[in-house]
Design a protein that fits this description.
The chain contains no helices and eleven strands. The protein has 120 residues and is mainly beta. Strands 2, 4, 5, 6, 9, 10 and 11 form a seven-stranded mixed beta sheet that branches. A four-stranded antiparallel beta sheet has the order 1-3-8-7, with no helix packed on it.
Length: 120
Amino acid sequence: QVQLVESGGGLVQPGGSLRLSCAATISGSGFYAMGWFRQAPGKERELVAAISDSGEYTNYGDSVKGRFTITKDIARTTIYLQMNRLQAADTAVYYCNAGPWPLRPIRGYWGQGTQVTVSA
């Protein structure tokens, strides 16, 4: 069992930055790949960024490459998403996910979601 708690969403102007955090509480042993998906109104949930359980591998959605960076803390239970040069198209609810690598939107554990709004 994995519980995920997200923080860091909010309102930011285009071109600005935000950092999201997701802390995992894991019952039992083992580590998980973790990452972020997002869902905008009327759109499917899409991968933003993912990091393997060891932190060795990362994966990014095409629309965020070069702007977003995912990292994991040394305890391997908290991840961070640094989002730079934010655009209106980044507006969505961001969900933290934990599961086997590679992450998929149809499986794993989910956080409650945090709203990111990019607007002037």
